[in-house]
Amino acid sequence: MAVSVRFSDFARLAGAGAGKGKNMTKKEYDGYTYVDGGVCAAKGFVANGLNCGINPDREKYDLGLVYSETVCNAAAVYTQNKVKGAPIFVTKEHLEKSAGTARAVIVNSKNANTCNPNGIEVAEEVCALTAGALGILPEEVIVASTGVIGERLSTEPFRQGMPELVRGLSADGNGRAAYAIMTTDTIQKEVAVTFEIQGKSCTIGGMAKGSGMIHPNMATTLNFITSDVSISTEMLQAALSEVVKVTYNCLTIDGDTSTNDMVSVMCNGLAGNVQIREQNRDFDVFRQALYIVMENMAKMLAGDGEGATKMLECRCGGAKNLETAVAVAKSVVGSALVKCMFFGEDANCGRLLCALGYADAEFDIEKVNIDLASSGGRISVCKNGVILDFSEEEAAKIIGEQEIYIIIDLQDGDASAKAWGCDLTYDYVKINGDYRS
Amino acid sequence: MAVSVRFSDFARLAGAGAGKGKNMTKKEYDGYTYVDGGVCAAKGFVANGLNCGINPDREKYDLGLVYSETVCNAAAVYTQNKVKGAPIFVTKEHLEKSAGTARAVIVNSKNANTCNPNGIEVAEEVCALTAGALGILPEEVIVASTGVIGERLSTEPFRQGMPELVRGLSADGNGRAAYAIMTTDTIQKEVAVTFEIQGKSCTIGGMAKGSGMIHPNMATTLNFITSDVSISTEMLQAALSEVVKVTYNCLTIDGDTSTNDMVSVMCNGLAGNVQIREQNRDFDVFRQALYIVMENMAKMLAGDGEGATKMLECRCGGAKNLETAVAVAKSVVGSALVKCMFFGEDANCGRLLCALGYADAEFDIEKVNIDLASSGGRISVCKNGVILDFSEEEAAKIIGEQEIYIIIDLQDGDASAKAWGCDLTYDYVKINGDYRS
What we know:
The structure is a homodimer.
Chain A: H1 9-13, E1 19-20, E2 23-24, E3 33-34, E4 45-50, E5 63-78, H2 86-97, E6 101-108, H3 119-134, E7 141-145, H4 156-167, H5 174-180, E8 189-197, E9 200-208, E10 222-227, H6 233-246, E11 262-267, H7 281-303, E12 311-319, H8 322-334, H9 336-343, H10 350-357, E13 369-374, E14 377-383, E15 386-387, H11 392-399, E16 403-409, E17 415-422, H12 426-433
Parallel strand pairs in A: 6-7, 10-11, 12-16
Antiparallel strand pairs in A: 1-2, 3-8, 4-5, 5-6, 5-11, 8-9, 9-10, 12-17, 13-14, 13-16, 14-15
Helix pairs in contact in A: 2-3, 3-4, 6-7, 8-10
């Protein structure tokens, strides 16, 4: 089992998940096995989702619930946008009040409960309703909302939907919960892996939503992760904060950092391992599992970006430090011109160099090498800062695929990182020109 | 005549130029009069443009020349992208070698002469050809290129076109030069104003190109400005560096900082004023003229952004300092979601707050007021950080116009700034999915 990896090694370990667009197959990791079940994959977690009337389209779910049979240690990271959704404030306060423990996640879509005069009261009331129905304390509830900003959110639909939501909690309810948090998403996003700690079978699984307004900063779009590993709140927060930096924070759909981004992890300890309380070998195994779940989720979010037809992964290696590698990789996948170039399948590779050149990082442009790769092959397009006279035909074959890898070597050190994005398409403009209706 | 204005006052002085989209009328300024003539408006400047064969479409010009009958003091600002076009290096060296003087600008479109192995040699050769034909020194030539990055540029078309280019230099050649620098631009961009210094009639005029890859950092897309004012190189550079901060650097089309951005100003002194050598009243008058030319050009660039149907101006007032005002205004006009919202004419105003919230600046979100304005009216959409229950009908009328003003009050001080952008449309994607063909 892979342990004690340096952090920038994560990027190398997680290779080119083969497969196509929105149905990416996942890369195999030694000692980690993908399983179904999303947030219900780990022992002791149940979930549900339904339409409670926030979304007038009754076909679409708008309310999701995840519940642990036992108390969990919990950690979360939040958006760094100055404008924060009311649920962000309430969740933060709850985790402080409960000393980093939680039992449930309640989350609605269609309305972000943000920039409303009574947002905090509404979020508190939603937690109280949830706690009452589950027989737990309000501060054991993590609350989240996603959707339109600046529209009042009534608690009435929550009140009406709560009994049925709680009644329907089940160990196979993960899909319903994942469906409930979708907005402009076109696919449900769930990942889970099993692995061993001290010979005990452990599981970590999660669900995510997000398609637009995605340019995470210290957190991202909504992501809820559950695990049966026993780990202290402090170690859990440490693992989450570290992994988020090289996964969700390396994801950009449109450069817009949402107001409601949140990633939460709840660990109930039912795997039966001796609690992880320090950064030992067990911690490394857990952190790697968390990385696998979050990397896969990040790729799913990128591939399902609003209007996207292609998933773009930029790998920057040979950097003098992790920060440089991250800045370069994010700058390339975040460029509107690079995004359009892949949509148009036009190998206008000067744009890759241009985007790299305005990254906020230090490196020598005259040492930069760039390759393009996909299941269609691999080609070198830039060597030592000079665009090569590559075969347009070969390049066209590579960028005609749905998963594209832009591989940069700065020839300046050992650090590496990945960033994920997608192409910019007519549909992105269409979706966002008419979001509310 | 307006003088001794504090710098952040510029934003206030330059009000809402009325008029529509690409045919904006210009705001009147006390003591400054708009005139025709672009780079030839000032005394002693001639210009020309033609097709020399870099662009296979012979209808399109690809080579422009501006020439001053007498030696000019010159100043320039350049892109901060790490990847710089070869002409940037050569122009910089020439201005150093000539101690801040120049006689001519030679500029080609269709090929950026960037990331080529022999780019510097090509740019030097182009200057030598120009100098030879004009009978001046190579270091008196400012050289610039714009177009595709990473394609070799031959000097042969320059050699063939130079005699005719020089022969055709004339005082009404400004339009031909402005046409020669267009790439995806749909309109020529020229502005000139006359004003008085020491009772002498002075003129400053310029031309600009730029439509995509526009997110200037310390400089912008290609802009060439000429004036007959007598001013020292040092004072000229001071004025340019100051004005660029609140004009071109507040402009974003797509977040991509070009590799070839450059603004140059050449002043030949033929107006006959006593040379400006310090930051006195005359300096203020000149700087204000430069501001007027550059602000108008910035708005023209924004309104003619690739695929744009609307010009967006964000004015941020009540900021505690200029940096805060600039950061907030740029963040709003740069947001992909805000840009799509205006294209779709959907007053989804939470997106304005969201974009403001991730600006890299310090302010209190609970004090933020936002109005939307245009020739269709003015409406308040956010008060003290809370989205108001505004009339959708009124809002639709306002954002249905072609010039939209987003007016932000941070209620935190006296500084203000403007930033300019445009909507994000299907055509932006179309243009940039297939740029090279």
